[in-house]
Amino acid sequence: MKFTDGYWQLRPGVTALSPRSIAEIVVEEGRRLVAHTPTRVIEHRGDTLNCPQLTISIDSPADGVIGVTIEHWDQPEVGPRFALAGAAPEVTVTEAEGSVSLTSGTLTATLGRDVPWDLSFDGASGHLTSSTGRAPSALTTPDGSFVREQLAISPGEHLFGLGERFGPLVKNGQSVEIWNADGGTSSEQAYKNVPFYLSDRGYGVFVDTPDHVSYELASEFASRAQFSVPGHRLRYLVIDGPTPADVLRRYTALTGRPARVPAWSYGLWLSTSFTTDYDEDTVNSFIDGMAERDLPMSVFHFDCFWMRAFHWTDLIWDPATFPDPEGMLARLHERGLKVSAWINPYIARRSVLYAEGKDLGYLVKRPDGSVWQWDMWQAGMALVDFTNPDATAWFVEKLRGLLRQGVDALKTDFGERIPTDVVWHDGSDPQRMHNYYAHLYNKAVFDLLVEERGEGDAVVFARSATAGGQQFPVHWGGDCESTFSAMSESLRGGLSLAASGFGFWSHDIGGFEGTPDPGVFKRWLAFGLLSSHSRLHGSSSYRVPWAFDDEAVDVARQFIRLKMRLMPYLGQLGEVAHLEGLPVMRPLFLEFPEDPGAAMVDLQYMLGDQLLVSPIFSDDGRVTYYVPAGRWTNVLDGGVVEGPGWRTEAHGFDSLPLLARPGAVIPWGAVADRPDYDWAEGVELTAYGFEPGMSRVVEIPRPDGSVSRFEVAADDDGQVSARLLDGSAPVKAWTLTVR
Known about the structure:
- The protein is built from eleven helices and 43 strands.
- The chain is of the alpha+beta class.
- The protein has an eight-stranded antiparallel sheet. Strands 3-13-14-20-19-16 form a six-stranded antiparallel sheet, with no helix packed on it. Strands 27-24-23-22-31-30 form a six-stranded parallel sheet.
- It catalyses: Hydrolysis of terminal, non-reducing alpha-D-xylose residues with release of alpha-D-xylose.
C-alpha cells in the first residue's frame, strides 16, 4: 500500500506517526531491547503531553535471526499465528555511548541513541540493511490504521520471493499484496503468498503475520523495501546468511521444512483432465496407450468429475461412470500404478456432507449464525471450518474412506478465496484466517496421508499455501494458458516459490486452459520432465502425447526415461530439501549469488546444484541463455560451453540446454522405466569437467533408508577415480565415466 505523495507529502487523508526522538532504551533480561520513541521532538516537559509514542522492541527468536516489533497501541493479537520453531539463542547486548547493539549468532542489530531513529543490521557478510528516519510509522488512512516499516535497498541489490508470483523474478519495482486468490498465472494475484523476501546480499526478511501484508519494493521509495500491515502492530524478522542458500536454511528451520516425498511421486502423473468425458474404459485406454508406446508412468489422477456434478465435495464416485470404484482402483494397482484423486474443502448444497456438516456445526458460519454459502464453483457451496478440531476430524474421516478404497494421493485444490465476513469456531480473526486457511486445509489432509500411508509415502498435489506450507509437498503452479508465454509465467512462479522456501514444485505440462499446439506441448514436455514433479493435465482436452503428433510421443519417451535415470540425483536433492530446506529447482542467483549476471535470469534454472536447465519457449528451437563462469558440459550431446556469458543456440524438440556444472558428478540410475528402484545398484557416476585437485562426495539414498556415499576425485595429473566411502551401504555394481 502506498501512503505518500512523492517524497515530501502524504496522500490525502493519511496521517503518520514516526519516531522523532528516543526517550529511553530499556534492556530487558539482558536479551531484549525496548525503545520508547516519541513522535515529536522533546525539548521540554510540555512536549511530552498529548504526544503519541511508538514502542519498538528488538529480540532474537533463533540463532542468526533478529526480530523487530513496532507497536502503536498495545492490543491483543488474535490468531491464527504462524507456528515458528527455534530455541532461545545465546544473545549478547553491548551498550556504548552512542548506541546499543543486540547480537545473535552472526547477526547484529545496532540502535543509535542520539538520533530520532537509526537501526542497522550487520551480518556475516557485512552491512545488510537499515531502518532510518521516519521508516517505522503508525498511519491512519481512510481505509483504517496501519503500521509500516521501510528497509534500505543497496545499489545493485535484488529482492526475490514473496511466494509464487508469475511476473519478473526480481521483485524490485513491484507492488505485491500478500493475499491468496484464485487468479490464474497471468495476473498479479497468486495462489501461494508468502510474506518473506530474499536478498542476493545474503539476508531475508519475514513479516511474521498471516494477515494481509502490502509490499512496495523500490516502488514507492526507490531505495527502500516497504511493508505494511493493518492494525497497530507489525513484527518482522531479519534472517542472516551469509549466502542466500544459508538464509533459506535458517528460514525453513523456523517455518518448517518439506517432508520426504515417496520415490514413486517423481514419476509421470497422467490425468483425466478437468471437463473431459471419462470412465474406466477411457482411463484404461490412456494407460494402455502409454504402455503400448513405451511411455512409463507412475500415477493416474482422477480430476473433479470422478464425483457427480453439483455434489462436490461428497467423496462419492459417480455411479454412472465408475460403478465399481474399489475394483477399478485394485486393477490400477495391479498394473503398478498409484492413484490420485481431486478434492477441495468446499461442500456443495447437494452434497451428502452438507446437511451433516451443518447439523454438527462443522461449516463456517456468518455472524448471524447461518452457514456461509455462495454459488461460485458449486451451487450453494459451504466451507469446512478447520479451526474446529471436531470438524477437521469429521472431514478427515470422510477422506479416510477414500484412501481405504485404494486412493494413494490427494490433489488438494482451491483454498484461496476464503471469505472474511464470517465467524470461525476458535474465534480467529477472519482477515488473518484468509491466507492461513490453506495451511490448515493442507495440513489436515497431509497428516491423514502420513497416518494411513506412513511417513515418506505421503504426498499431496496442492495449489494454495502460505508461509510454512512447504511442509506439505507437493505444490503445483495452478491454472495457466497453453502458450509459450504461460509456460514462461509458470517457470517464474516456480522459481519465485523456490526463493520463498518451497522445496518441491510442479505445473501442468502443456498448460491448463485451451489446447496447446504440438510445438508448445513438446517444448513443455522437456521442461516438465526436468522439474521436481511432472504431470500431464489440462482443462477441456486430454494431454496424452499421441493426441498431438508422433514426435510428441518420442519426445515424451526420451525425457521420461531421462528423468527416471536421473533418480539417484533427484533423490539426493529431495533429501537436501527435506533436511536443509533448499529447493530442488533453484533460481540461478541462489547458486551464484556472487555473479551479477545471474541475478536477473528467470527463464532458466538450476536443477539442484549441478545441472543447468534452459527450457525453450519457441517452435523454432532458438534459445538464448546465460552460463556462469567455467567449463560446462551438455549432458545430452557432450558439447562444452564456456562461461560466463550469454549463448544462443537452436535445438530440436528432442533437445535443450542441459548443462553439468564444472566439477559435477551426476549419478545416473540403471533403470529407465520407473522412479522407485534401488538408485545405487548399477549406478553410473559421471564426472563432468573435472580438473586436477577437484573432488566431490555423492550421496545416494537407498530404499531401506541407508545411504551409499562415493567420493570422486582428480589427482594432480587430472586422473579421476572414485571409491565407495567407509560406512556406506554396499553397492554390488557401479561404474565411473569421465566427460
